[in-house]
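2024-03-11 09:14:02 INFO receiving multi-entity request
2024-03-11 09:14:02 INFO entity count = two
2024-03-11 09:14:03 INFO echoing inputs for audit
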Amino acid sequence: MSAVPIASPHAHGGAGVSRIMAKVMLALAPATLYGFWLYGWPAIYLWIVTVLAALLGEATCLRLADQPARPVLLDGSALLTGWLLALSLPPWAPWWLGAVGGLFATIVAKQVFGGLGQNLFNPAMVARVALLISFPVPMTAWVAPLPLTAAGAPGLFDGLLVTLGSATQLDAVSSASLLGHAKAELSRGVDLLHSLGGHPLSLAGYRPGSLGETAGLLIAAGGIAMIVMGVISWHIPAAMLAGIALPAAIGHAVDPARYLDATTHIFSGGALLGAFFIATDYVTSPNTRAGQLLFGLGCGLLTYVIRTWGGYPEGVAFAVLLMNALAPAIDRLLKPRIYGRNRKGAPLPS
Amino acid sequence: MGLMEKIFGAGWGIHPADRKRPAADIPLRRIATPSHLYVPLQQHIGAPARPVVLVGQKVAKGQLLAEAQGATSAAIHAPRSGTIVSVGDITAPHASGLPVAGIAIEWDGEDRWHEPDDLPADPFALAPEDIGRRVAAAGIVGLGGAAFPSALKLNLGKRSGIHTLILNGGECEPYLSCDDRLMRDFARETVEGIRLMLHATGAREALVGIEDNKPEAIAAMTAAAAPFGEVQVRPVPARYPMGSEKHLFSTLTGKEVPADGRTTDLGVLVHNVGTAYAVQQAIRLGRPLVERIVTLNGGAWHAPGNCVVPVGMLVADIVTAVGLKQDPARLIMGGPMMGTQLPGTFVPVVKGTSGLLALTADEAAAGEAQPCIRCSSCVRACPVGLLPLEMAARIRTDDYAGAVDLGLKDCIACGCCAWVCPAHIPLVQYFGHAKGELAARDRAKLRTDATKRLVAARAERLEREAKEKAEAAARRKAERAAQKAAEAAAAAATADRTTEES
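2024-03-11 09:21:47 INFO inference complete, emitting structure
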C-alpha cells in the first residue's frame, strides 16, 4: 500500500495521450497509403525523411533541455506532426525539403514554445508555410499521379534518386494542382468554364496535389472515424467545411466563370485534410464547443478568401495559422457558463 | 438536453463504469463487533463534541458519550455497551493520519441498548421543533458525506419557508451501494423517516431522487411510498456527479442554485436517504446514530458487499473480519471519485463513512502525469462549467488570483476532470492545493490586518499620551506660574501695607 497520499479521484476513465495519437494515426493511414500508392516510392521516402526529421528535432531539444527524450517521443505527437507535414508537401519534393520542414516543425514551432501543449500555432502548418515562403519553387512542383503499380513509375532505387534530387526526368511528369491551374488561368484571363476542361475533379483523389491531400473520400472517412471514436468532435470540421462551401456556393451561383463550385473547393487542396486533421489539433484550437464552431468557421472563410482573392492558390495553412492566433482570444470570449452564475460570472438572482 | 445544449456540448459530468454489482446485490451482513471501538469526537462539520463520560465508566449501547458544543456540532453515543478505557487521541480517518480526540470503549460482549425514556406513542403528534430536538439529541449528521448536523438543517425549515424536501438517493459514486441496500432493505422505515422530516420542516412534498441504475431500490421505495402522496420517487439518469446536492436539485426541479446561495434559498432542503432512515430510528425507537451501512468493495476484498458496521470500528478489525485477497494498491474511505486515501488501517469508521474500497493496482488509476495537450475533455466533463485546464495552468505558476477569476471557488472537487484527463494530470490535487493556499493567505492577511490595526492603535495611544503629558505639564507650569504670581502679588501687597503702615 502506498504511503504517499494520493489525491482523489482514485479511478480513471482510461484515456491516454499516446492512445489518442495512435487513433489519429490510424485514421490518417488510409489516405496516406493511397498517397504512397498514387505517387510511388519518392512519396514514401519523403514521408520517412520528414517524420524522422521531426522526431530528431524533438529529441535534440529534449536532450538540450536535459529531459528524458524517450517518454516524450513515445507520446506520438512529434511523429504525428512530421506525418501531417509530409502529407502537405509535394510528393516528389527533394529530401531536404522534408528534413528542413520536419526539424522546423518540432524545434521552432513546438519545442521553442515549451513543447507539447505550449505551442500557439500548429507546428505542421508553421513548417509548411515557412517552406512555402522560403522555397516556393520546390513547394509548388506538383507531379501527375504515377501509381506504384503503373509502368514507368520510379522503382525502389529511381524513387530514391527523385527524393535525393538527382533524377532528371522530373519535368516529364510535372503538372499543376487544380486550384493552381485555375488561379493561373484566371490571371491569364481564361475563365473557369474553359480552363477546367482538362482537369476533372477526382473524388477518389487521382489527381496532382500534395502527398496526402487528394484522397478526399478516404480523408473524410478517417475524420468521421475519429469523430465516432470520440477523438475529435464534429464542430471544427463541419464549421470549417461550411465556411468554405457556403461562400463558394454563393460565388459559383453568381458567376460560374469566375468562382469554383463548392464541391471542387471542398475536395481540392488541403480542405478536407485541414478540416479533419489540422484545424482539430487540440493544442491550437479553442476549448469550448461554441469556440470551436467559431474557430472552424473562421478557418473555412479565410481559406476561401485566400484561395479566391489571395496570392496563393491554396489557403488552408494560412487560414489555420491565422485562426490559431485568434484561438486564445476566442477562449477568453466564449467561456462556459459557470453553474449558478450568469455569462458574466455574477451569481444568478435567487 | 436541449438543441442548443447538444450543439454547444453543455452536457455535464461523466459516465464511469459503476462497478456497484455484484456487491450491491449481496444481502446485508452484520459484522462481528470487535473487542474495542474508537469513537472520534468530531465526526461532523463544526466543533468537536465534549465528553461527558469518565474512564472506567460502564456505558450502554446508545448512551451519550459526548454532547454537542457550540452552534454547529453533534452529539456522540456509545456504539456498543462496554467500559470506557480511554478519552484521548486516536488516528483521524483522513489522509494526514493526524490524531484527533476520541473515546475508546471495550465491548462487554452484550448487545444492550440504552433505554430511551420518552418514546412518543405517535411521532407525528410531536411538535416540529421536538423532532428537531430529538434528531439533534440522536447525533444525526448528513450521511451523504458532508456530515453536517441534520437538526440544524431541519430547524431551518420553518424559518426559511421550505416547501420541498429532496431526498438524495443518487449514490452516483462508483462502487458504493450502501444507500441502494438501505433503500432496498429498509424502504418502509426510510419513507417514514422522510415523512417525519416533512413534518419537522413543514415542507409539502418530498422528492426521492434515485439513479436509474438502481431499479430494485426504485421499486422498493416506490412501493413503500405508494400510500403517501406527498412522498414521490423520481428516478434520475445515472450520471456522475448526480449526487451533488446542486445537480440533483437542478435535475429534479429544472432550476439552478445561485452561486452565492443554497437550495434553501429556493425553498428546497436536500437530505440523504440514509439520514431519513436515521431520523426514523431516532424518533420511532429512540435509537441514536451509532452504526451505519458501509459498502466494502474493490478487487482486493475477499467478500465484497454491504455490512452494518458500528461507528468507531477500526478498518483493521474489518479487514480481519472480512479478509483481503491481496494487499490493496489503495485503501479508500468513501467512493473512488471523492473518497480519501487512508494512511493505514488503524482508523475508525465514522458516521460519514459510506464505503471502504480496497482497490487493486488495476482498479486504482495510477498513470504518470504528462503535459496537458489541451484536449479540453475536462472542460466538457466539468459539471460546474469551469475550465480545469486553464485553472491548473494558472496554479502551476502560483497565479491563484487568476485561478479564482476562472471560478476556482465554484469547484466542487468532484474529480470529473481528472477522471477524463488523458494526460493523467492530478487536477483535483491542483485545485485542493490552491484552495488550501488561498485559505492560508486569507488567514495570514487577517493576521497582518490585525497586527496593522494594533500598531496603528499603539501609535495613536502613544501620541495621545504624549499630548496629554505635554498638556498636563503645561497646565502644571501655568498653575505654578499663577501661584508664583499670586504669591508675588501677595508679597507685594504685604510690602505695600508695611510701607503704608510704616
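2024-03-11 09:21:48 INFO post-check: The first helix of chain B runs from residue 3 to 8.
2024-03-11 09:21:48 INFO post-check: The CA atoms of residues 111 and 409 of chain B lie 47 Å apart.
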